[in-house]
């Protein structure tokens, strides 16, 4: 059977409820534009398994593995928005999108047929890189304190000043600077302590 015909038959059988389909919840994935992201199947491809990746509301086929005996049929889309972007692991069927762009935002659905059929969905959101923040300080938000200590014949004093740094970024998605996928974190607002010692000595 030709791969395109197999793909068509697969979807007809699934949509008509012929297979006992197990569906997982949609997993949300956030990634910065220009990075790579891997969508994992959490399976290992066995004999007679079929793994299918589709994208978007039209369920466009973008990657597929069909394993028959010792022969693996592997299809990876190289057209349009996915040209030179996709890489599929032939052992697990996991899909990697390289150098991802905003046009790759959307729903990716995984169908695994291995005795039974299971479906997984990944909602991928691609964010533009955050711009470089502009950092300024306001002297009215500064405070200072001083302390002194003595030891033997010398006396030392020091002063500590604390200022709040004001940060802003043009067209940023979040001024609070949250994390992207728990890996990239930008702190847009910070408090800085600066200690400036002033040493004097007095002989007794």
TrEMBL record:
Signal peptide limits: 1-20
Keyword field: Signal
Record bears the keyword Signal: yes
Domain Immunoglobulin residue range list: 26-127
The organism's place on the tree of life at top rank: Eukaryota
UniProt key word Protease: no
Transmembrane segments: none
Annotated Gene3D superfamilies: Immunoglobulins
Pfam families: V-set
PANTHER family documented for this protein: CD48 ANTIGEN-RELATED, LFA-3
Record protein name field: Immunoglobulin domain-containing protein
Source organism of the structure: Cyprinus carpio
